[in-house]
Specification:
Shape of chain B: globular
Oligomer: heterodimer
Strand order of the largest sheet of chain B: 1-7-6-5-4-2-3
Radius of gyration of chain B: 25 Å
Largest interface: A-B, 211 and 208 residues
Strand order of the largest sheet of chain A: 2-8-7-6-5-3-4
Number of helices of chain A: 12
Largest sheet of chain B: 7 strands, mixed
Mean pLDDT of chain A: 95
Order of helices and strands of chain A: HHEHHHEHEHEHEHEEEEEHEEHEEEH
Distance between the termini of chain B: 25 Å
Helix content of chain A: 25-40%
Shape of chain A: globular
Mean pLDDT of chain B: 96
Strand content of chain A: 5-15%
Structural class of chain B: alpha/beta
Low-confidence stretches of chain B: none
Low-confidence stretches of chain A: none
Radius of gyration of chain A: 26 Å
Helix content of chain B: 25-40%
């Protein structure tokens, strides 16, 4: 057993010191009838070499980003991760530490969290951020629960322009708490003021917007947020942190809670997890925010140091009054994001954002020239857009797959009445050649050229 | 001030950069962002070179205690060795660079990882069905309670109350609240176990479930577990096992056979994935057959040689994660299970149990032992004797830091005075345990002869005792204040 140091002799000596004659004596509290009398039906242990071989062959059964030209987004993005990110976050001091319960020997983790919180506040222009939640969807669920407990109202409004999976997660957690969810209609992929006015009422706890929205559209939320506030509700914005080098942050429009998915900030796509739930709030909501928060304090010698703070809010003390059961964060993913944001800085973030936007509108423009392609939703897009084409979507996907292109995510799977449309994502990693290849393949498909 | 590490923001100088974006290969097309949408003042991220970033975070990293450095016997957190090869495996491009919504046919290996892991967890727990979606133990608890709620609703009503023992993890009552239930707390008996007579008195038709940790948070196995479970089933309720302490049971006994309807597993604990400074974890939930229809959607299933995601589950409670849970953690856990195998599973638990009882036997001379019977993989001591001398458990914990060891969990479970909850795990050698015992004995001796040494500890850490109350009072949680 390469991970277990004690030998049979060690064990014998220890059992002697414990004062029992055999290991079985230590199992006395477990009724005999409950003890497993056979070995577990799990294969015998393998050498490291064999484990690597088995797992590598499983990895090879997948087609990863290097084997395909990927235009997939919808909450998981192929952004470049600078080498230093993985290298630093992979240091065993970050990797194999735990929750900083003893701050004197956890200053590394705690300072990283403080820096992370500071950066998230800067990105979104909010007053406070926590140390992260599980992912974008669970962050939205926590935001909605916070809105319910803060406003003591129980209705939440949202739109198809909010990620459908985020909404599903939020409903799973919100339904048992008596929150009612209403999905409002969109006009050309956007939220319209008039539609909001007619439905906001005194029962509305919050309205949820996504920015840029699920279809990649950049909407001006300021007037919408004003309307939400006028009705006494909270404005929750699901925002892409990577867009914040270019776009006006929702905090400047008085958003009450900003949540988001931080995967784009230096984390691998990893088949959907672990991801990084971002959660930031305005001043008045700090003490209601779920999860961990690191703060600055002093030690007995007056030196600056960091501790987890405001812990009395949650399950640590309030136990049966808790409004959130979160007791962990995605520490390592947050560490990666902190290092990523330190490396790219304000200029890098702006440049990445500009490139995403240029690429997105370049491919969109190219496709618009192809007869048989219909672009949906006019307006400026950030890194995603929607189109439909003449022809069968499954046939198109198959045609593109033969050219090693994953051309987008069929919106059919989300049941939003856009069954023949595709959501296409462009990051800064896509080049003009790749986008031209995409457009050429679309043209070839529509011409009915043989696959 | 000496020894203060600057913040990355304090190292920032205008114009420095740590990243060069590639030249954009395309020209802007069409109208750009309107002024109302374009960011007016850039986020004040640090402007630093790459080498500054590397040096800064390397410097921060060494200000951490971590399992690769020294003993980390944090009770209930199960800090055990994290095999290096698992990190290498999880970073294979075939795992790390998969998109969650790419067609299932192009992700067969990933689905097989999840399927195989699920099968192993079913075998370990003796339960029938699994979801890997919950991203942490607490989320697993909540997921299971939501499934209970859905099941009971189908049986006539969700009911109102959920019972927990007073020794429960803090997340248990919080999960109960978030699942829309009332918390009913049951005092433990004098032996540290659930008080079965008291349980009988509070069981009624409004009780939806009992949540129990087994072995419990005192490190004790609930000997009357079958009786307890049949009592709850008798009133139509369900029983949930908080699997935080599964490290004690692998190959020895199984929650399914005890009668539990559901349990979660903290993969990061029992199956040894790195804790990352507080996450990511992973909290799969296992259930008996009658709860299977309510599992979160999608569920991984196998059709012959082919693996699929089943999204179409009409009775499902819904999604609890945006995609499929912390897949990167699933990969590491499966690699660990393959390494340890059948005999290794049992070896883990046996060694963990011997190690904990060894500490229990050796330390019971100097420290109060609140309960009599052998413990499982962790032992709870009380610092009452030392407190009578004016030295609190917190002081002893801080003194341990001076020896380069991480203290045990302190002041939990809440029902033990001055609690010290020690979990050595199977990763630690007899020599390490002997060294810890020596240090604890010295600390006890100092509590008699030199208590000030303890009360002013730690002395050798990068910062000394920190004022936690001041942090909450004068909240400073971000660098730029305006």
């Amino acid at each position: 057993m390469r991970y277990i140091p004690n030998t049979p002799d060690d064990r014998q000596a220890m059992l002697r010191d414990i004062g029992v004659s055999s290991f079985e004596d230590l199992l006395k509290p477990i009724p005999k009838s409950l003890r497993l009398s056979r070995p577990l039906n799990i294969p015998k242990g393998k050498s490291e070499q064999e484990v690597v071989a088995t797992m590598t062959s499983l990895a090879r059964k997948n087609l990863d980003a290097a084997s395909f030209l990927s235009f997939l987004g919808a909450g998981s993005y192929d952004h470049y991760v600078p080498a230093a990110v993985g290298d630093l976050a992979g240091r065993s001091e970050f990797l194999t530490a735990y929750t900083p319960y003893q701050p004197e020997v956890s200053q590394g983790t705690l300072q990283v969290i403080y820096e992370f919180q500071s950066m998230i506040c800067e990105l979104f222009r909010m007053n406070a951020a926590n140390a992260s939640l599980y992912d974008g969807g669970t962050a939205l669920a926590e935001a909605v629960m916070l809105a319910q407990s803060h406003t003591r109202r129980s209705r939440v409004l949202w739109f198809d322009s909010v990620h459908p999976h985020y909404r599903k997660v939020t409903r799973t957690l919100g339904d048992p708490l008596g929150i009612r969810f209403d999905t409002m209609p969109l006009t050309d992929g956007r939220v319209k003021d008039a539609a909001l006015d007619s439905t906001l009422d005194v029962e509305t706890a919050a309205v949820v917007f996504q920015y840029p929205n699920f279809f990649g559209l950049i909407e001006h939320l300021e007037p919408l947020i004003e309307r939400v506030h006028a009705a006494g509700a909270l404005a929750i914005v699901v925002a892409d942190p990577l867009a914040m080098g270019v776009l006006e942050p929702p905090g400047n429009w008085d958003a009450d809670i900003v949540v988001g998915e931080g995967q784009a900030l230096g984390n691998p796509q990893s088949y959907g997890g672990p991801y990084l739930g971002l959660f930031a709030v305005s001043e008045k909501l700090v003490r209601r925010a779920p999860g961990r928060i690191a703060g600055i304090t002093r030690d007995v010698d007056g030196r600056r140091g960091y501790v987890l703070t405001l812990q009395t809010r949650e399950q640590h003390i309030r136990r049966d009054k808790a409004t959130s059961n979160i007791c962990t964060n995605e520490g390592l993913c947050a560490t990666r994001a902190t290092i990523f944001l330190s490396l790219v800085g304000p200029q890098g973030l702006r440049e990445i954002g500009e490139t995403c936007m240029k690429n997105c509108n370049y491919l969109r423009n190219k496709l618009s020239e192809i007869p048989g392609v219909q672009l949906l939703f006019d307006g400026l897009h950030f890194k995603e857009f929607v189109f439909r084409l003449k022809g069968d979507v499954p046939a198109f996907l198959e045609f593109m797959a033969k050219r090693d292109i994953l051309p987008g995510i069929p919106l059919k799977r989300f049941n939003m009445g856009l069954d023949d449309a595709l959501l296409v994502a462009l990051t800064e990693r896509r080049t003009a050649d790749e986008m031209d290849r995409y457009a050429d393949a679309v043209r070839a498909f529509l011409k009915g050229s043989p696959s | 001030m000496q020894n203060e590490t600057p913040l990355i923001f304090e190292l920032s100088r205008e114009g420095r950069r740590g990243y060069d974006a590639p030249d954009s290969s395309v020209q802007a097309v069409g109208p750009g962002l309107s002024p109302e949408l374009r960011r007016k003042s850039p986020p004040r991220l640090p402007e630093v070179s790459e080498n500054t970033v590397v040096r800064h975070y390397t410097n921060l990293s060494v200000r951490n205690h971590h399992i690769d450095r020294d003993f980390y016997p944090l009770g209930s957190c199960t800090m055990k060795y994290n095999p290096r090869v698992n990190e290498q495996i999880a970073s294979l491009p075939g795992f790390a660079s998969l998109h969650p919504l790419q067609p299932a046919i192009t992700a067969q290996g990933a689905l097989e990882v999840m399927f195989r892991l699920g099968e192993a967890l079913k075998e370990v727990t003796g339960l029938d069905a699994v979801t890997l979606q919950p991203a942490a133990g607490a989320q697993g608890e909540l997921t299971a309670l939501l499934m209970f709620r859905a099941y009971l609703t189908g049986q006539g009503g969700p009911r109102r109350k959920i019972i927990i023992p007073d020794s429960a993890h803090g997340t248990n009552p919080a999960s109960i609240r978030v699942a829309g239930y009332e918390v009913v707390e049951l005092p433990s008996g004098g032996d540290g176990l659930l008080d079965v007579e008291a349980l009988k008195r509070i069981l009624d038709e409004e009780v939806a479930a009992l949540m129990l940790t087994n072995p419990n948070t005192l490190g004790l196995f609930e000997t009357r577990i079958e009786e307890i479970i049949s009592l709850v089933h008798g009133i139509g309720g369900l029983v949930y096992m908080d699997g935080a302490n599964l490290n004690a049971m692998l190959g020895i006994c199984r929650p399914g056979e005890m009668g539990f309807d559901a349990c979660h597993i903290n993969l990061h604990k029992t199956f040894s994935t790195p804790h990352g400074g507080g996450g990511p974890g992973s909290g799969p939930v296992l259930v008996k057959k009658h709860l299977e229809p309510f599992l979160p959607s999608p569920v991984v299933c196998r059709h012959g040689e082919r693996f699929e995601l089943d999204w179409d589950r009409p009775d499902s409670i819904g999604h609890v994660h945006t995609f499929f849970g912390n897949f990167g953690v699933h990969v590491r856990a499966l690699a660990y299970i393959l390494s340890m195998g059948q005999e290794g599973m049992r070896e883990i638990s046996e060694t963990a149990i011997v190690n904990a009882n060894y500490l229990r036997a050796k330390l019971s001379t100097e420290f109060e032992l609140p309960f009599g019977s052998p413990c499982m993989h962790e032992v709870v001591l009380s610092g009452d004797r030392q407190k009578a001398r004016g030295v609190r458990t917190a002081d002893m914990a801080k003194r341990l830091l001076d020896y380069g060891m991480h203290p045990p969990t302190v002041y939990f479970p809440l029902i033990v005075h001055e609690a010290l909850m020690i979990e050595p795990t199977e990763s630690e050698s007899k020599e390490t345990l002997d060294e810890f015992i020596e240090v604890m004995r010295q600390i006890n001796k100092d509590s008699l002869e030199n208590p000030d040494l303890l009360k002013t500890a730690p002395h050798t850490t990068p910062v000394r005792r920190l004022d936690e109350a001041a942090a909450a009072r004068m909240l400073d949680i971000r660098y730029y204040k305006d």
